[in-house]
Design brief:
Elements: E1 2-3, E2 20-25, H1 32-37, E3 42-45, H2 54-63, E4 66-71, H3 83-92, E5 96-98, H4 107-116, E6 133-138, H5 145-148, H6 152-157, E7 174-177, H7 183-186, E8 191-195, E9 203-210, E10 213-220, E11 235-240, H8 241-246, H9 255-266, E12 272-279, E13 285-291, H10 303-314
Parallel strand pairs: 1-11, 2-3, 2-4, 4-5
Antiparallel strand pairs: 6-7, 6-8, 9-10, 9-12, 10-11, 12-13
Length: about 325
Amino acid sequence: MVIADEAFDHRSTDAESISVAVLEWQAWEGFLLRHVIGDDAVRIETDPFQEFPSAQFDRVCDSCTAVCFQINLSLRSRLPLGIRELTNRFMARGVYVINGFVQDIRKSTLHTHLETIGLASPKATPSGCPDELLFIKTDLNYGGELEKSLPRESIAAAGLEHLISQDIGAYRYQTVVRKMLPESTWTDSAVVIEKYIANSEDSFYRVYFSGKQIIIVKAFAPRIIKKLSGDSRDTNFVTDLEHLKAGTDNSEISATLKRDVAIFVEHTPVEFGCIDIVHDGQDNHYIIDLNLTPYAGTRTHDPFLTKFLRLGITNAGRRKLCDFVGSPLLAE
């Protein structure tokens, strides 16, 4: 683990009086937020396909100072729960809301968001070198596996009818050369086609962020689908948004990567989550995945790291002010 010196400046400023209500669906045990907030969270199992009870809303406002939406779905704009409306109501009552504005984290929407904020997108186009290797993925996160398990009426209520792929799953992403792709794949609303980006050392980056708190993991994975696998070379770089923006972070990673991470965190309507970044070994980096409910497993994690991320929720000075006007992730 590599920790930037400036990260220690915030260790003793946690606001322990903060009470966080977690409106959770399919994303608690083993998920990162469970490790970060711990048993102090007021966990509220929430059905996203039902309206939030008025009496429960009042109880949350009266007893909690922050609310986190931990709803494990890629598209949330049409859910009967009404996350955006609830967010506005909570904010009107003085409650800080985590991940209440972002409504759409599908990969195609992420591509557009990256282009909007001036970052490179991995999106592929039908025209190009016929022999270029491309990556076929589901537009929904994790192969859309959770969405596939929903009852038909819930799929319809969330507007997912044409967004669930029956052919591609979480670990069945495909690589194919452009000339072998049928035209129907390019127009399939359930999949996205990306450039296949790789490097000789099989490394990638996972970035966890909570408010202004940022942990960049340089990780190694030989498989086509890049996942954290506990490689002994994996290294954590702990920093924050201010130091990345100012160029004063001394971590031994690319300045271009630091800049890209700072732009994304600052200009994206997400208060807590993670992104995966692949690179070509030539200092070109591409964000390929955004996750609001990152999974972290059930093992015990370094308490310094979890407390560091906790500050982005519980400490007002470590929260970020989002500049996300016009972001397609809002699904307005």
